[in-house]
Design goal:
The protein has 238 residues and is of the alpha/beta class. It has one domain: P-loop containing nucleotide triphosphate hydrolases (Rossmann fold). Strands 6-7-8-3-9-10 form a six-stranded mixed sheet. The protein has a four-stranded antiparallel sheet with strand order 2-1-4-5, with no helix packed on it. A hairpin with a 2-residue loop joins strand 9 and strand 10. The longest helix has 14 residues. It is globular.
Length: 238
Amino acid sequence: MTPTPFEPESATPTGSPRPVLEFRSVELPPLSRRYDAMHHVNLTLGEGECAVVLVPPSQEGLPLADAALGLVEPSAGEVRFLGEDWSRMGVREQLARRALVGRIFERPAWINNMNVLDNVLLPRRHHTVLSEERLFSDAMRWAERFGLQTVPAERPSSVADDQLRLAEWVRAFSLDPVLLLLEYPMRGVASERRDALHRAVAEARAGGAAVLWVASDAEVVGPGVSHYTIRNQTLVMA
């Protein structure tokens, strides 16, 4: 993975991986019935590192991924991406940095009056100036890797749920993101697809991507993987 335009190609002075995502003493308010509050969130993910957050079923609905993207402003503390606090960036810089993030959402996240292929390509069309040919070929490459013959050209309401979930994988991994936010990525997908997802995550990490994986069970194990859980609305080491 090439360095981003925001940071030099180097590790931190201590030789540890360059920080990609940092939660620094973060307090997240309960914005709606969907989201629980979170307290004293401290987490740093460097290049190539992976954190798995194991969430009890009774506590699903965390604002972690939205906060990691700068979409939820903490009531205290800082969320930093590639060394910069989201709240101190201008709108253009926020948009440019979000082009470096791939996300699989907790709940379906589709624009229903667009077909699935256009949904998949939309983030990169919006955040980059890459050609349609490049965007399409990269999406098709990932579709093949994840067992899809193609990215569906039908609207989301006409596509089976498991195929939609795999299309979300394609959208998240396209164009080598610096940060992957994976919220329950195996939900609704047959277990035999797990190896393909793990290989994609391992490849992304080898290229320098950081991974925040939210799950209801220990779906990810291996070197460089940290495990957390939620206790009393606080993120703690598992």
